Amino acid sequence: MIREVGASIGRTVLDGIGRAASRIHERRALSADLLEGEEAYLIVLDAPGATADDVAVRFEGNALSVRIDRFREFYDGYEMVFPGRGLALSGDVELPEGAAVDADRAEATLTRTGTLEVSIPKTAEAAGPGTDAEEADVETVAEGDAADDEAAPDAGGNTTDTE
Length: 163
Known about the structure:
This protein has 163 residues and is α+β, with helices and mostly antiparallel strands. The chain has a single domain, classed as Immunoglobulin-like (Sandwich).
């Protein structure tokens, strides 16, 4: 009896600590790399455990906003002891001042390794801080789900969409 009470208290404590850890994880902004090429900006974010349906990407003003609402998988024969991963993750990335981009042509790809890559093409004209599209929702596709068959391996041997 005392052993059962102790185990119950232990599970309750671990559950509380795990939930606190996941809330901290959710409050921390997603880390992102912003890269600039001759024809586009590329924003790379970590999105482990997410599917394309879990990801919402929006371009507004001069910033990209990402929201990931992922779910925990259930595993037969296992029960949750420590729920430490955040499920609702988000982050914003500001493009450089004066960046002229066409957000309507932006592409978001979720790779097999859990990385979200968002490519935003530059426009030919040098505009001010505004963009050709002030607001745009960007559809996210999972790597390998692209409609066209033109795919090429990147430096790491992963296949990415080359539209």
